[in-house]
Design brief:
single chain; mainly alpha; 0% strand
Length: 83
């Protein structure tokens, strides 16, 4: 379909340069930009909480910080069991 739109001169120049670098038409650049914009704006249904299976008892070992991956890795590599 053919239509006419008014674009900022600088934006149009950038879009033309992008199209040339990518080896596509200006129309293809505009179509892709619209698709990406509309895709980000679509409402997604709320996600259900995920229940992860656990084994063992007693929760985390003392001193374990799940937000500190380096110390967690060190603790796992040492393999010491404080229990």
């Amino acid at each position: 379909m053919r239509t006419m739109v008014r674009l900022d001169d600088q934006l149009l120049a950038e879009a033309k340069e992008w199209a040339a670098r990518q080896g596509v038409t200006l129309a293809a650049v505009i179509e892709q930009a619209l698709r990406e914009t509309f895709g980000r704006c679509q409402e997604h249904p709320p996600r259900q909480p995920v229940k992860l299976p656990t084994w063992g008892h007693g929760g985390l070992r003392p001193g374990v910080d799940l937000d500190d991956s380096a110390s967690l890795l060190d603790l796992m590599e040492r393999g010491d069991d404080p229990a």
